[in-house]
Each structure stands twice: as C-alpha cells, then as structure tokens.
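Possible regression after last week's pipeline update?

I re-ran a chain I had predicted before the update to compare outputs. Posting the input and the new output here so someone can diff against the archived version. Not blocking, just want to make sure nothing changed silently.
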Amino acid sequence: MNFNFENLYIEYDTEDLPYSLYEIHGLNKIRELSRQLRTFINYKTATIKYRFRPKTINYLTAVNKKYGETKKKLKQIATEFIQVLTKIKGKGISYESELIRMLERVRLVEDMISNNLLTTLRETTQNLFITIHELSEGEIHLNPKFLKFTVNLTQEACTVSKILNNWASGFYEELRVNYLQLYDELAKLIPVKKAEKTVREQKSLEEGLKEW
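New output (post-update):
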C-alpha cells in the first residue's frame, strides 16, 4: 500500500484490494465530485438570488448566528490555506509551479519538509471545500461581498486540487473555469466603488480576507 501524492486517497495494489474496499474507494471519489457540483450549483443559485433580490432587503440584519459562525470558520481555514500556499511559493513566480516541483521532488527523494507541507495543504484544502459547501447551503447571497470573495477563494482551491489530484485534474480545471466565470458575473453585479478602485484593483486573496 503506497501513498501517492498525485492522489487524494491511498493507493492500493489492485490484486491485493478486496472488492468491498475498492467499491468504497470509488464511491468516496464520486461523492466528493458530486458534492463539488452541488456546491457550485448552490453558488450559482445564490448569484441568481442576488441578481433578482428585493430592493428593500436589509443584508446586514438578515445574516443568522449559524451563518456567522461558519463565516468565521471559513476565515480561519482560508488564512491557513493562504499561509501554506505562501510557504510553498517561497521566492518562486507562482505557487502553482512550485507545487508541481514539490510533488515531483517528493516522488524522487525523501523530503519530509515538502511531505509535511503537502499533507497540510491537502487537509486544509479539503476542510476549505467542506466549509465552502456549508456556506453554500445557507443564505450567502445576503452577504454579497463575502459571496464574491468566497467564489474567488474557491477557484484557487480548485487550482490546488487540480494539481494535487491527477485523477480528477480535468474536472477541477473545468470547475475552476466555471467559478472564474461566476466571479466575473459577481464582479459586474457587485462593482468596487470608484473611490476604492485604484487602491483595491490588484487585491490579493490575503488582502480580501482582511475585510472579514
């Protein structure tokens, strides 16, 4: 039984794998992709709800306690996610290229530092997706700026998952593109105020997180 850093799950030699475990292994992958699709549909629905919102709704008072707790949880996990990506990027051009190099390095040599970073990134990304899904099940359209930020954050998580999970790289790339298109739609619906535009034009995820 070997751990493959290209795969979210543990790799087994097929001849040693009982059918029941093989079935569970496949079902876990299907459930994960199914949840990802439901999450995207929820955010697309939230965008539609915001687009056709009643003009009189009070967005600040409409957010309930449970939503506030989940939002706080997302902020904490997102901070960890960004910090890990910053460590991986180091002095490189992008975290994507450095992440690919790190995966290759771990395959070739025993590098515990890289190994630990990859493990942390996998766990953090998974927790991030779960919390993003929890938010999508609520009334996130009542907090439009946070909706836009979360969609932007999710496309970054898709980029990471595309690199980490070779078995589903095409799926996550397509999902990333869909979130990017959704973010562009939200950017038109929730434009940055002119007074802030020049200052915030190149806002990073980390800077965006500070708003919440």
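Follow-up from reviewer: compared with the archived run. Residues 140 and 146 are 8 Å apart (CA to CA). Marking as no regression found.
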